[in-house]
Amino acid sequence: MSDFDLDQTDRLLQTTKQVRKRLDFDRTVPSEVILDCIDVASRAPMGSNLERNKWLIVNDRDKIAAIGALYLKAATPYLASGSIDESDDRQGRVVDSAMYLAERMGEVPTMVIPVRYDRVEGGDVATQAGFYGSVLPGVWSFQMALRSRGVGSCWTTLHLQYEREVGAILEIPESVTQVCLLPVGYYTGDSFSVTKRRPASEITFVDKWGTSPDLM
């Protein structure tokens, strides 16, 4: 028997969003809040229970500014490339908010960079799936733990175009893989609505590719 309040857990799962324009750039997030969330996130599944994940919290203003400059350098051509369909209203809003965050990345209160020992360049699908599948669930748990404490975050990866340069700023060994970069800050506003997505019946197959759940 489940003793969870499903309304609350489902609301947390469905309203943990990527926070860009609603980050509070002027309010510091206490280190103990971030550490509490990392403690929660470290319980996420990982291959063979091998604890090879680390978390790097960046509070130093000069380092945040330097990483933010590299992020903007990567984001500007990508967001201007037309690879995202801005004629779609929702996608257009995403591009707008992504550019806003890119321009202000160097001002965020805190950056958190999840990392994992080793590298998987050139590895087969199984190797890569096992590698990233052992760290990404923890990142999502971390974001939800932040959300439940009134703190916003945003999953970003554009800085990885300059992974080595960021690694040099933070003295991360080249044998360690940076997985993503999360700008972290309290969010402004009252709450978040449920994320709009297609229903499960439209994105699910049963027993074989192309078989709709309606035929169950």
Describe what this molecule looks like in 3D.
There is one protein chain. The protein is of the alpha+beta class and 216 residues long. The chain is 41% helix and 12% strand. The chain has a single domain (28-190), classed as NADH Oxidase. It has helices at residues 6-15, 31-41, 61-79, 89-104, 125-132, 136-147, 163-170, 200-203, and strands spanning 53-58, 110-117, 151-153, 176-178, 182-186. Strands 1, 2, 3, 4 and 5 form a five-stranded antiparallel beta sheet that branches. The model has no long low-confidence stretch (mean pLDDT 91).
Outline the fold blueprint.
Blueprint (H helix, E strand, L loop, with lengths): L5 H10 L15 H11 L11 E6 L2 H19 L9 H16 L5 E8 L7 H8 L3 H12 L3 E3 L9 H8 L5 E3 L3 E5 L13 H4 L13
Antiparallel strand pairs: 1-2, 2-4, 2-5, 3-5
Summarize the amount of helix as a percent range: 40-55%
Strand content: 5-15%
Weakly predicted, low-confidence segments = none
Return the domain count.
1
Number of strands: 5
- What would the average pLDDT be, to the nearest integer? 91
CATH superfamily grouping:
NADH Oxidase
What is the CATH domain class?
Alpha Beta
Assembly state of the chains shown: single chain
Order of helices and strands: HHEHHEHHEHEEH
CATH second-level architecture: 3-Layer(aba) Sandwich
Shape: globular
Helix/strand/pairing class, anyone?
alpha+beta
Radius of gyration: 19 Å
CATH topology-level fold name: NADH Oxidase
Largest sheet: 5 strands, antiparallel
Determine the number of helices (DSSP H or I, runs of at least 4 residues). Answer: 8
N- to C-terminal distance: 26 Å
